[in-house]
Design goal:
Blueprint (H helix, E strand, L loop, with lengths): L2 H4 L8 H18 L18 E5 L4 H15 L4 E5 L5 H10 L4 E5 H8 L8 H11 L4 E3 L11 E3 L1 H7 L18 E4 L7 H11 L5 E4 L5 H8 L5 E3 L6 H4 L3 E2 L12 E6 L5 H13 L2 H12 L5 H11 L4
Helix pairs in contact: 2-4, 3-11, 3-13, 5-6
C-alpha cells in the first residue's frame, strides 16, 4: 500500500476531478434505477433485508476500519457482508444513498469538505452539525471517535531529542527553534493556511526553509528519516511514526482541522444493538491505537480481519 493511496481520505487534495466524477456517478446511478442488469460496480442492489453491508474506500486503513465495524456488528448477532475497496468518496456516497452499502467508515473533516467546502467548524461537535446540515436525508452519522488521521507537524527522533520535544509538546513549542529547522511537505503546504501560512499566523512559527516533497508520502518520510528535513507534514496514523520514533506535535488550535473516524450509516439500516456496537467501537478507538493497528496491517502484513477480531476481543467488543 502506498502512502498516497493509504491517505486518499482527504478531499482537499482531489478537488480537480471531484465534480466530473460525481456527475459520472450520478448518471450511472440513474441508469441503475431502470431495472435492467449491468456489470457496472455502482449498480449494486439494495442490501437484503436483515443484512448489513459494510463498505470501505480503496485504502488500507479504511478496509481495517470496515472489518472492525463489521466484526463488532457480527458479535451482536447481525448478518454482515463486506464490500471492500470500493473507490473514492464520490462512489461510496452514491452507494450509501442507493442502499447498496449500509455502513461506511468516514473521516468527518473530509466528508464535510466534500459536502460543503466553505464550512469552517471549530469543534468536533460543530463539524458533525455542519455535516448533518448537508447530508442526504437517507444517511446519518453515529458517534465520532477520538482517532484522527490528519495532517500534522512531526519531527524526527534526533530533533525531538535535541530540543526536548515529546508527544506532550505542541506546535507552539517550535516558536523559538523553528528558525534552525527545515520543514518538508507537499508543494501546496507552502502556500495554504493549513500549512506554512497558518503555522506563522496561528502559532508564530517560522521555519528556516521549506522543502517541497509529497503529501505525507515516501519522499517526505525518507527526508525526515535522513534528517534532510527536521520537521514535516505527516499523517497522524502513519505507521512510520512509531517505527522511526517520530514525534507528532499537538495541534491545540486545530490548525489542521478535524479528521475523526466516524461511522456513516444508511438511516434505519441498523437495530439499536448495532448502533450501540459501533458507538462502543468509536469510544475505544484513539489515534495511537489506530496507528498501532495500521502498523500491523501495513508494515507487518497481517490480515486486517484478524487484526480487527483480535483488537475487538481485547476491548470486550468481539
Amino acid at each position: 500500500m502506498t502512502s498516497t493511496a493509504k491517505h486518499s481520505r482527504s478531499t482537499t487534495r482531489h478537488t480537480g476531478a471531484a465534480a466530473a466524477a460525481l456527475a459520472a456517478v450520478a448518471a450511472l446511478l440513474a441508469g441503475c434505477s431502470s431495472g435492467g442488469t449491468s456489470d457496472d460496480p455502482l449498480a449494486g442492489e439494495e442490501a437484503e433485508a436483515g443484512t448489513v453491508v459494510v463498505g470501505s474506500n480503496n485504502f488500507a486503513e479504511s478496509t481495517l476500519l470496515a472489518d472492525i465495524y463489521g466484526e463488532a456488528l457480527k458479535a451482536k448477532g447481525l448478518k454482515v457482508e463486506y464490500k471492500h475497496n470500493i473507490g473514492s468518496r464520490e462512489t461510496t456516497y452514491g452507494l450509501l444513498k442507493n442502499g447498496s452499502v449500509t455502513v461506511l467508515p468516514e473521516y468527518n473533516g473530509a466528508l464535510l469538505a466534500y459536502l460543503d467546502a466553505k464550512a469552517a467548524p471549530k469543534t468536533v461537535e460543530e463539524t458533525t452539525k455542519a455535516i448533518e446540515a448537508k447530508l442526504d436525508a437517507k444517511l446519518t452519522l453515529l458517534e465520532p471517535s477520538p482517532a484522527q488521521n490528519k495532517d500534522s507537524v512531526t519531527v524526527n527522533a534526533a530533533t525531538a531529542a535535541k530540543h526536548g520535544l515529546t508527544a506532550r509538546s505542541s506546535i507552539g513549542d517550535l516558536r523559538d527553534i523553528a528558525g534552525d529547522l527545515v520543514i518538508g511537505g507537499s508543494p501546496e503546504f507552502q502556500a495554504r493556511h493549513q500549512g506554512l501560512k497558518g503555522l506563522k499566523s496561528v502559532y508564530g512559527v517560522e521555519f528556516k526553509s521549506f522543502k517541497a516533497l509529497d503529501a505525507g508520502g515516501p519522499l517526505t518520510l525518507a527526508a525526515l528519516r535522513k534528517n534532510t528535513v527536521q520537521a514535516a507534514d505527516v499523517f497522524t496514523t502513519d505507521p512510520a511514526i512509531t517505527k522511526e520514533k517520530f514525534v507528532v506535535l499537538k495541534d491545540p488550535e486545530n490548525l489542521f482541522g478535524f479528521q475523526n473516524v466516524q461511522p456513516l450509516v444508511r438511516e434505519g439500516s441498523l437495530p439499536k444493538e448495532g448502533i450501540e456496537a459501533l458507538d462502543a467501537v468509536s469510544r475505544k478507538l484513539d489515534t495511537a491505537t489506530l496507528r498501532e493497528l495500521d502498523a500491523r496491517v501495513q508494515s507487518e502484513k497481517q490480515d486486517p480481519l484478524d487484526v480487527a477480531k483480535e483488537w475487538l476481543g481485547s476491548q470486550g467488543l468481539g
